Amino acid sequence: xxxxxxxxxxxKGAKKKRNAAEAIEKKQKKDSGAANxxxxxxxxxxxxxxSKKVQERKADSNSKEGGPGRYITKSIQFLRESRTELKKVxxxxxxxxxxxxxxxxxxxxxxxxxxxxVDFGLIKIIKNIIG
Length: 131
Fold this sequence. Notes:
Elements: H1 6-35, H2 52-65, H3 67-88, H4 94-130
Helix pairs in contact: 2-3
């Protein structure tokens, strides 16, 4: 027995949506044709018209038109997104903050001591070679 993959599941879902949209469109054509043959058939709204990508494209096309207003809207959008990202941050407690600060200070002192010893040793070696 063959397993269904994610792609085939997506294809089946897309087919179902397409078939449902076609069925609605046929029904509307049938209803409008029976009631008034003079009237134009109402078009079925595309399935993805409410998706975020479509809304973003509309927002981008609107923002390209207005000059300075475009920068204001982009700035406001940036601030909103920054605010939502800052809400997601796990801020350290006071205890965690002191512990990590102590580790950083300790490591800086160790590296400074190591580099000081290496520097002092190289200076002695160069003085012995020259002098």
